[in-house]
# Entry
Amino acid sequence: MAKAMREPTFWILTALASEARHGYGVIQEVARLSDGEMTLQAGTLYAALDRLDAEGLVGVDRDEVVGGRNRRYYRLTDDGAAALDAETERLRRTALTATRQLAARPGRERTA
Amino acid sequence: VNSYRVVLRAYPKGPRREELFDTLTEGGRDRPTGREWGNLVRHGWRARLGRPRSRGVVVIAVLVAFTTGYLTAALATRIGWEAAPDLPQGAALTAIGADVLGGVPHDASRNGDGMFQDIEEPSLGHILLVGHDEDFGFSQVDFYGPRAGVPGDFRAWTAQAASRLAAAGWDVGRITPMDEHFIDGRVGDQYGTRLDVTKDGLAVHLETSTTVSDISPGNFDVTADVTRVPPWWLITIGLIGWLGGAAAGWLITGWVSRRTERASAAVRSLTREPVVVALVLATPLSLLGLLLFGWQLFDASVSGVPFWVYTMTYGHGLTLVAGALGLVSLLMAAFAGRAVPERVEVRS
# Structure
């Protein structure tokens, strides 16, 4: 059974699923997608990006110069998409199991 | 903005600092929060080790840092002791003898001319190659009572000595009875006492015993030794040395790790394995050093030896081998490793 993904990793991969983003863009997108529940610290983000890059789950997409500053964009690789897909499926099954168990709880139907 | 620049120095030199700076300031912020400081320092120091997937490199870095911290603390306190007041002499020593031994006639002699005593009186070369004799320790002043012993009851005499020392302003510890212990676990009669007292940066260890040869029947032998207690500033130097040495060890490990990160499997192995064996040999000695360093903070009776005593006595050979192996890793990194490129090329 695959090891569960850490939450910051999950959100970083999710933020990169639709398009390549630079560091600040990833932080903003993660905050938006998680409704503000996940606030990524910059140090955590880049440590995760380095690790995910070494694992082949993300890659460097391009460098851009914006306002005289160099921005590096990161993208999700095919392996990263597969890993995110597998984790999403795992979470879906986990949530479904919990939902079923809660539905079977005595008195649930009456209070619902 | 400058605050961000300062905290980003936790990261290794390179474009990542700039990338982080842009990310941190893009939202209009100009100074890090406390949480950001902690996060950046923690991940910056981790980034210095390279190999983002490896947990092993973190374990190695922690152990190297612990050991280099220990060695630096040892060196720092060794130098610091030079500035500490010497053992008492002349009238001051006579006064201490009177406090400790009361009216008992006694001789006093200094054991060790310089800072340390080693029965072999080795040369510097001998110390570096072979280490110190097992009885190595700080120099001390020994008091000896009469050869024929002191008449009377040693328990009562020790109790009087404790009262006398307390009245003279010494910080008096508990009187510890010394009992005969047999190999089968039985405890026999009490044959002596031990008493530790401290005052003005000095520790005195006073012992009585009825089992010493040459004493007359019914008498007891009495001896005492005077050693120096590490002053507070020396302990501070030790702690600062420990932290500084640990930081240096971490940075050196990071340098070695990053230089060999992309090297061949053989080079990586020849860098990693020697340092792992070196740590297996050196870590127990560093741990013993830490225990003794901590123990000496609370118990002056163990101040007769430096906290690094085992590295220079029983563990000297292990230390030499560990040092040589560490040097192999460093040389491998220096000559067979290569600097990590500042910016990884964008892959198409």
Remarks:
- Chain B has eleven helices and eight strands.
